[in-house]
């Protein structure tokens, strides 16, 4: 499995990623982009 944030494209393996389902697909999001998904872009 490729480790890559679907929001920003980060691939750093020393960072925290979370699994999520987006548009009916399993995807990874990095911890830095998670607040943007929760609260929306400002």
Structural description of this entry:
It is a single chain. The protein is globular, with a radius of gyration of 10 Å. With 42 residues, the chain is of the alpha+beta class. A two-stranded antiparallel ribbon has the order 1-2. 14% of the residues lie in helices and 29% in strands. The mean pLDDT is 91. It is built from one helix and two strands.
Task: Summarize this structure briefly.
The protein is α+β, with helices and mostly antiparallel strands and 42 residues long.
Structure classification = alpha+beta
Q: Considering DSSP H and I runs of 4 or more, what fraction of the residues is helical?
A: 10-25%
Strand order in the largest sheet:
1-2
Poorly predicted runs:
none
Biggest β-sheet, characterized? 2 strands, antiparallel
Beta strands, count: 2
Radius of gyration, in angstroms, nearest whole number: 10 Å
Give the SSE string: EEH
Q: Bin the strand percentage.
A: 25-35%
């Amino acid at each position: 499995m490729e480790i890559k944030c679907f929001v920003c494209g980060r691939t750093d393996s020393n960072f925290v990623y979370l699994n999520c389902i987006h548009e009916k697909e399993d995807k990874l999001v990095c911890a830095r982009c998670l607040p943007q998904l929760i609260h929306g872009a400002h």
